[in-house]
Amino acid sequence: MDYKFSDHETAYLSYTSQANDSLNDQSGQTGDLTEGNFTKNHLQAANFTLNSVISPSTVNSFLVGYQYWNNIIDSTLKVPLVTFIGGSSFGTNGNVPQQSYQRKWQFRDDLTKTVGRHTFGMGVDFIYNPKLGGFFESNSTLEVDFGADPSVITTDSTNYPQGFATPGAVIGMSASAGDPYFDMPGGTKQLGLYFQDDWRVTKKLTLNLGVRWDKDFNLVGASAIAKSRTYLELVAINSPYAKLSHDDDKDFSPRVGFAYDITGQGKHVLRGGYGLYYGNIFQNIPLFMIQHARPSIYQGLFSLTTPTDVVPGTGIELGNWRYGVLLTAQRAG
């Protein structure tokens, strides 16, 4: 929605709601449909912009923005994941459930001033994420791994006389549990300042000269990582890697560009430019570290890989454990 207060001041208001729902984006080519999943990716965004003509040579633009993003990937089926040599499998997908969410506020002001052959641009951009995090429960149900393809197990009566229930047919078993959440404590903040000069040197040549400085606050989550079990273990053994990451203070981004009107008629313009830019850190890195700082962490409960490993709660070695057979029957046999 556009609104005109006067010839010198206008406003713009917008709201966007977006929902991208899909199925089975975590499924592999050899997995059964039971390994399917649903994804709900929802975004809401709104912004208010106020444009002001302060004078014939001075214009200001002020923006307030809000955004909420929520992405959840899950399955309606909660059963063990069964895998086979060769890649085939069925059961609850090992990548679900997981969720990511972000709540963001943005405040930005841009001022443009023309002085002679120079058009100066300057501004400030501030972003506040009061909520940033999610959870990830990998291997959320029991995983049972067979040592052969199903077609072999069902037809090779010599090595698999009892089919899937043959002792030794299962060669691996694992499970995970704990608190899977990783919320950035205190949220994050980002500040950007910039200055630019578009200088019309001659009728044919215009130079674009500018610099930007960016500063992140708590984007790497150092305050929480200090409590991470991984970090504390490194400290305990005097590891040289026991160092906390920190937000950089020297993210200066210079930029230069030019536009040259070859004929002076505006029909053929040669343009070029160079700039140095900084992107955000990949958030999976600090967020998973923060997960290790919670009172209860999400981790593997057990991982059985040899025949002599004992299946938890049964007293039976993996090499003698029988798939699909009641525990009382296995102990009796």
List keywords for this structure.
single chain; 333 residues; mainly beta; ten-stranded antiparallel sheet; five-stranded mixed sheet; 5 helices; elongated
Quick gist of this model?
This protein is mainly beta. It has helices at 150-155, 222-225, 229-236, 284-291, 327-332; strands at 2-6, 9-23, 38-55, 58-74, 81-83, 89-90, 98-115, 118-136, 143-146, 170-177, 188-200, 205-217, 251-261, 269-275, 299-304, 310-311, 316-317.
Describe the protein in words.
By secondary structure, the chain is mainly beta. It has a domain at 183-281. Helices cover 10% and strands 49% of the residues. It contains 5 helices and 17 strands. Strands 1-2-3-4-7-8-11-12-13-14 form a 10-stranded antiparallel beta sheet, with no helix packed on it. It is elongated and about 95 Å long. The relative contact order is 0.11.
